[in-house]
Amino acid sequence: MTSLLIHRGIKSYVLRQGRLTDAQANALDNFWVNYGIDYRAKLIRPEQYFHRHASLILDIGSGMGETLVQLASNHPENNYLAIEVHKPGVGSLIKNAIQHDLANIRVINHDVIDVLKHQLPDNSLEQVYIFFPDPWPKKRHHKRRLVNPEFLSLLKPKLKAHARLFLATDWQDLAEHMLAVCDQDPALINIAGRGHYTPRPVWRPITKFENRGIKLEHGVWDMCYCLK
């Protein structure tokens, strides 16, 4: 079946651009050249932007960037590439990266579908994070959910052998959806066993979305998959 999300331009997000703070605008205006990668429908060589060869980790939907900045601080040996469509989040990520003097973060301000289709080279990613994506809880909006078979078909060629895909959500219905989609993919191995969630990885910081879910007495579900 043709994917509505990928082939008919249905987005997994809605742009609700809030006002940029002065600090976010300053970060975008003055430091994009250091941290940003402009979207073009042309393959890039990520190591050229990081000025080194290192394990490349993709963070899809990095939000305001707090989690990614903490991970990049804790693991300077890795290169982290964020993809985020909302400019305030991109500005916040760059601002925080500057404050922590991080050189191992880059960000693309564009739709991940286009980036996967046109910009990222195959066999380039060691890990991928999809933490607390938009749950699109209403049934009529489920077609907007990012994780679906067609999305995985775009993502998998970008992964190195035995690369890891980490997912997390505080919406049970979305957790069940992502688990079912990923479990059904013959190229992905559920590290916890088919039909099972993993404990929260000790290295994954508790995000603001997770804290919100905990306050609302939601559960939090983590998943980890390995590419065969």
Strand content: 15-25%
Question: Low-confidence parts, pLDDT < 50 over ≥5 residues?
Answer: none
The CATH architecture assignment turns out to be 3-Layer(aba) Sandwich
Compute the number of helices. 9
Give the tally of structural domains. 1
Distance between the termini: 24 Å
Number of extended strands = 7
Major sheet details = 7 strands, mixed
State the secondary-structure class: alpha/beta
- In CATH terms, the superfamily is Vaccinia Virus protein VP39
CATH class: Alpha Beta
| Helix amount | 25-40%
Radius of gyration: 17 Å
- The CATH topology annotation reads as Rossmann fold
Major sheet strand order: 3-2-1-4-5-7-6
- On the 0-100 scale, what is the average pLDDT? 91
N to C succession of SSEs: HHHEHEHEHEHEHEHE
List strands and helices in order, with pairings:
Layout: H1 4-7, H2 22-35, H3 46-50, E1 56-60, H4 66-74, E2 79-83, H5 87-99, E3 105-108, H6 112-119, E4 125-131, H7 149-155, E5 159-169, H8 172-183, E6 188-190, H9 208-215, E7 221-227
Parallel strand pairs: 1-2, 1-4, 2-3, 4-5
Antiparallel strand pairs: 5-7, 6-7
If you had to describe this structure to a student in words, what would you say it looks like?
There is one protein chain. With 228 residues, this protein is an alpha/beta fold. The protein has one domain: Rossmann fold, CATH 3.40.50. It has helices at residues 4-7, 22-35, 46-50, 66-74, 87-99, 112-119, 149-155, 172-183, 208-215, and strands at 56-60, 79-83, 105-108, 125-131, 159-169, 188-190, 221-227. A seven-stranded mixed beta sheet has the order 3-2-1-4-5-7-6, sandwiched between helices. Helix 7 (149-155) links the parallel strand 4 (125-131) and strand 5. Helix 2 (22-35) packs across helix 5 (87-99). The longest helix has 14 residues, at 22-35. The relative contact order is 0.16. The mean pLDDT is 91.
